[in-house]
Amino acid sequence: MSADHPSHVVKRHLQSLLCLLAALHLVGGHWGVMQMVAWAQMLRDYSQDRSVAEAVMDTFDGEHPCPMCQKIKSCRAEEEKQKPASLLKMDQSGSWLVTSVVALDLPESPWTPENSLVGFVIPQPLAAQYLAAPATPPPRVDV
Known about the structure:
Largest sheet: none
Distance between the termini: 64 Å
Mean pLDDT: 77
Structural class: mainly alpha
């Protein structure tokens, strides 16, 4: 069978889909998907007896949660309680700074001049290269 056989294509797409779903689950994306479903249902239900603008306001103001939103909130809180302490520490903001503090304690490089300046080039806009005059052609030699 060739690599372009329909069964290989389907298998490759199925593998990609399963990897995507696994990654989504690992980062907690399943809660986001369920919350979007809950919001869609709330918009549908609220817009039946009021204007669309009022339905949108009531859906996203947080003061009118549906039973599904309440269940999602309680399940997420329960999941957070079950996380190991090491994962909770990593979720705290600023925990990634610990690795950058280590870099500050390293000795200076012996080959770096002490008075060296680091400069940055300001990029020119794309249009600036077309505004400049064309380059002068080289002189021609008549033979």
